[in-house]
Design brief:
- The protein has 243 residues and is of the alpha/beta class.
């Protein structure tokens, strides 16, 4: 019975993806930035509802200009953060070439970075700093990979330089997934090293109803810290937010 329900949800996921793809291709060019942002939020909430994930928000997202820095658990993190408050993500470049998904992430305003390329990291930092100067809301996952939702990995500092250059604040964010019934931390959404998008999606669809929590911390300014010092302080803040 659980597999049958998962199959039904999977078909609805595909329909939602196609709906988003069609909208971005046909309607988005006619919308202004604010209208696009509102559509992304509604679409993300709809997708999470189909999958069986309720979003709970604690705290308040800061208005732009701000760089949001969150821990990273799953490919679902982007949907969860979009559902709470639209922001432009910095994503790995290979996502851009994924069928359908690449169009959706691009439509959501993502900036792309070539992982492992120092020159490309510098290019993206300059692009991020300019976007922050324009008052935009950006988001990064400084861990550089996905964790289990219990342990927060060390934060990489490179992309945080954008906030220092633009004299913009960073808002730390803690993401967690819980079993909606037991309120225990759920590992079902975790994206492990040997996972594929399909296997991770299937495991999530087969899981009991989930609760995704987005806890916004207070925004911070560099206040004389270099990016490495700031990265360590941000990691410590996110760890505290997860408690």
């Amino acid at each position: 019975m659980r597999s049958l329900r998962a199959i039904a949800k999977f078909l609805r996921v595909i329909a939602q993806v196609l709906r988003g793809y069609w909208t971005i291709r046909t309607i988005f060019p006619k919308l202004n930035d604010e209208q696009q942002a509102r559509y992304v939020e509604v679409w993300a909430r709809g997708m999470l509802a189909i999958i069986g994930i309720e979003v709970r928000v604690k705290g308040h997202p800061a208005p732009g200009p701000v760089l949001m820095a969150a821990n990273h658990i799953s490919w679902l993190d982007i949907l969860v953060m979009h559902a709470a408050c639209h922001c432009r993500f910095v994503a790995k470049s290979e996502i851009r070439s994924w069928p359908l998904v690449g169009v959706l992430t691009t439509g959501g305003g993502s900036l792309y970075i070539e992982r492992g390329s120092r020159n490309d990291a510098m290019r993206v930092v300059h692009q991020m700093a300019e976007a922050l100067r324009q008052g935009q809301v950006l988001a990064v996952f400084p861990e550089g990979g996905t964790g289990d939702g219990i342990t927060v990995l060390p934060f990489h500092a490179n992309l945080l330089q954008a906030a220092i250059s633009a004299e913009a604040p960073i808002q730390p964010i803690a993401l967690q997934f819980f079993d909606a019934m037991t309120q225990e931390v759920s590992l079902a959404p975790c994206y492990r090293d040997d996972d594929t998008l399909i296997s991770s999606l299937w495991r999530t669809l087969c899981a009991p109803p989930l609760l995704a929590q987005v806890r916004y911390g207070d925004k911070q300014y560099a206040e004389g810290r270099n990016r490495r010092e700031w990265a360590q302080d941000l990691q410590a803040t996110v760890i505290n937010l997860c408690k």
